[in-house]
Amino acid sequence: MNELPFTWELVSLKRVSEIQGGLTLGKVYEGPLIERPYLRVANVQDGHLNLQDVTTIEVPEEVAHRVELRPGDVLMTEGGDLDKLGRGTVWSGEIPNCLHQNHIFAIRCFKHKLLSAFLAYLTASRFGRDYFEATGKRTTNLASTNSTKVGLFPIPRPSIEEQRAICKYLDNKLNDVTQIVNGIEGQIATLTAYRKSLIHECVTGQRRIVEADINRVKTHG
């Protein structure tokens, strides 16, 4: 990467966060159990969460406490498509007492050193993508990483105040982009509906093609 600004430092992720592993599914527990919701890999998508289908599991209370998610945790999947490997999504406590399986890492940033939102943006950057694509273990169709490689992810770290300013700037800019995209998608949907309606009207005789229409087509090629 290019030379960092003078006031920034380059540190490994494990120096500024705790990396929490998750539940091993299929394990048999003895004694009293409690039921808790938990996240699977399918729930952690590219830059967002899909919480429409969240299942539950019964585990001892001490196990649940050890792998419970907290607001601000950055979720990273252990495996998947190479271009999405290691991309972080911030957990905001959408489901109370929620756990996570062992194929999802929960990165708990030290709040005085690294903001969760800054880490999530960093993993989505070209710098972040290059790191995880270079270090990921590839198979035929998928790739995977591990806690060691996640922990060694180099973090170009400005002050907390500058991290906060960068995140606010990106939030505003990406919100503008989202509004533009939504507007364009709305126009595309309207034009697509018009296209279908026009075809239907013409081929069913509801709209008659007159000589003026034919001449207009000839004029415009």
From TrEMBL:
InterPro entries: Restrct_endonuc_typeI_TRD_sf, Type-I_RE_S_subunit. GO terms for molecular function: DNA binding. PANTHER family: TYPE I RESTRICTION ENZYME ECOKI SPECIFICITY SUBUNIT, TYPE-1 RESTRICTION ENZYME ECOKI SPECIFICITY PROTEIN. The keyword Transmembrane helix does not apply. One of its GO terms (biological process) is DNA restriction-modification system. Keywords: DNA-binding, Restriction system. This is Uncharacterized protein.
